[in-house]
Amino acid sequence: MKLQLAFLLFSLALVSAKFEIRDRADALRAHEECREDNNVPDDAYDKFLNYDFVDHKRTKCYVKCWVEKMGIFRKKGFNEADIVYQFTHNHPYYLQPVRHGLEKCIDHNESESDVCTFAHRVFSCWLKNISKLYVKFLVNKLCKI
């Protein structure tokens, strides 16, 4: 187990050479930019800041915008290693819930959904499958004002 953790942390260090960690300021800037880009109303936006992606006509493209600006989603889809590194680099004890959620949710858009639906489906699934404790940590770490 320790060997696996050491290998994973080494792998994550290699990813860090390419991937730039985003912090709270980056996340808030991404939220603001995506709000403007998608004309999100105040009531929905307040929920989005807490990772409560309510059913709204602008939700899916807002999520796609945010995950792109956070660097975890690209044209080919989600980069699992970048997601793990972004959300566990300083908190390796959250590695298991992050990886577990990804295993349940990552797909390669086999259903050929539009890009907004694809990004929203995977990210929302991941949020639902990680522990409630981690979601609370995530909200406080990245986006709580």
From TrEMBL:
Protein name (database record): Odorant-binding protein 21
One Pfam assignment: PBP_GOBP
Membrane-spanning segments: none
Primary localization class, coarse: secreted
PANTHER family named in the record: GEO07291P1-RELATED, ODORANT BINDING PROTEIN-RELATED
Species: Delia platura
GO process annotations (BP): sensory perception of smell
Stored InterPro entries: PBP/GOBP, PBP_GOBP_sf
GO cellular component terms, semicolon-separated: extracellular space
Signal peptide from the UniProt entry: 1-17
Subcellular location: Secreted
Family under the similarity heading: Belongs to the PBP/GOBP family.
CDD domains according to UniProt: PBP_GOBP
